[in-house]
Amino acid sequence: MSEATAAVGPTPEKERIDALDVLRGVALFGVFLVNFTGFAGAEIMATEAQLAALPTAAADEVVHALGEWLLHDKANTVFGFLFGLGFWLQLERAQAKGAAFEALYLRRLGVLLLIGVLHFVFVWQWDILHVYALAGFLLFFLRKLSDRAMLLGGLILALGARTLQEWLLAAKVLDPLAGRPDPYADAAVMGRQALSEAGDYPGLVRSFAEFNVADYYLNGLLAAWIFYALGRFMVGAWVGRKGWLQQASRHLDGFRRWAWIALPAGLATEGVAVGIRLAVDAGLAPEGSLWSVTGETIHLIGAPILAAGYVCAVVAALHGPVGGRLLGPFRWVGRMALTNYVMQSLAYALVLFGVGPGLALAGKIGSTQVLGVTVLCFALQVVFSRLWLSRFRYGPMEWVWRALTYGEWPTLRVATAQPAA
After folding, report:
1. Rounded to an integer, what is the distance from CA 147 to the centroid of its chain?
2. What would the mean pLDDT of 337-342 be, rounded to a whole number?
3. 118 phi/psi in degrees, rounded to 5
4. Given pLDDT bands bounded at 50, 70 and 90, which one contains residue 15?
5. What is the model's pTM?
6. Residue 179, phi-psi category: left (phi > 0), alpha (psi -120 to 50), beta (remainder)
7. What is the distance between the alpha carbons of residues 413 and 370, in angstroms, rounded to a whole number?
8. Distance from C-alpha of 209 to C-alpha of 202, rounded to nearest angstrom
9. Which residues pair with 392 in a beta bridge?
């Protein structure tokens, strides 16, 4: 490995920032639960009638509402924020060592884009990796912005990108269903269930590709998500410039103070947004109406506030004796975030689809059972990650990512100490 490559290569153990690993693990649990409940929910792989007929239907509604209030768009906000912060840390370290940062970092993003596209097409329709890679390219070209421009631009994009898309849909400027079958209709859902129960993997790939035409491309959601993610990256890069998380122990008073401000404000704002959404779901206002779009707008403002509260609370708790013990196991998952993210996709497939050993439980499992499965699977991920990292330097997917980025096979096994003579 050349000197320049080594300088921007994998982060040495002594340079890892524990709070970032823990935050990444916590965010990954939230992403896991939100994605699992969402994909098992109405209009994707189950109909409303199927879910309403489940014996756990009443509890499922409560679990779903709590997930919307506490986790929806907060977990991915923290995840995106950490990506931007990680970008800045890599840039900072590379510049300090005089490394050829640009070419290697762009290659790194290119590899992530390739992994994300393959994951998106063949494994998981809601993949975020390709979105992060595309937003990462944009962040790279904005890296020389001033602190003020980085923060303000990030906030505008984070708050406005998806809000604008929602308003364009409500105003019918974007009309993804013009002359096309509704991919959310019961007939479409039952068609996907039939393909799943038949174990027809090629059919499922084709079906979700058609779904994405309306749900992801024509409705502007892909563009909205790229700029939405970019806004969070920019805020993360701005925080990275300030050095607050790199030197968290010196800023604990600030983390504690902002946790007490952001958590109540975010919970209250998101409570209003969820209340409006429940009213729309109850038929008190039509989907896409002014009330519906207003509720979504309030949500997109409240979500980053609550996410900021979570970050501050986790960092503050991590530096306490009790919080450190409770949150510590998340660091192992966070150190293998790419591997664990892909493994979670396989868990969705195993539970919801009937391909291969799949259980084909779509339409037969509600949010309560999904919560239990998620907690169990995440606990197994903690154990697996801890055991794996006791023997290897990186997770399996992280190793592949590095190998393709640097063009050589990184040492995988942890070196064992030789006994003294």
Report:
1. 25
2. 97
3. -60, -40
4. low
5. 0.91
6. left
7. 35
8. 11
9. 413
Sequence-separated (6 or more) residues with CB below 8 Å from residue 263: 306, 309, 310, 312, 313
Compute the distance between CA of residue 207 and CA of residue 131 in angstroms, rounded to an integer. 21
Largest CA distance in the chain: 79
> CA 155, CA 174: separation in Å to the nearest integer?
24
Q: Collect all residues with Cβ–Cβ distance below 8 Å to 403 and sequence separation of at least 6.
A: 409, 410
Taking the C-alpha atoms of residue 256 and residue 184, their distance in angstroms, rounded to an integer, is 43
Q: Which residue has the tokens 């563009």?
A: 223
Contact, 401 vs 118, CB < 8 A? no
- Pick from 19, 39, 17: nearest CA to 310: 19
pLDDT in tens, 119-139: 999 999 999 999 999 999 999
- Residue 297's Cβ-side half-sphere holds a number of Cα atoms within 13 Å equal to 16
**Phi, psi at 264, each rounded to 5°:** -60, -40
**Closest Cα to residue 337, out of 26, 4, 33, 28?**
28
Q: Which two tokens stand for residue 34?
A: 């939100």
Tokens at 275, concatenated: 């209340």
Structure tokens at 265: 């404000």
3-state secondary structure of 413: strand
Dist CA 328 CA 342 (whole Å): 22
The contacts of residue 105 (CB under 8 Å, 6+ apart) are 8, 87, 90, 91, 94, 140
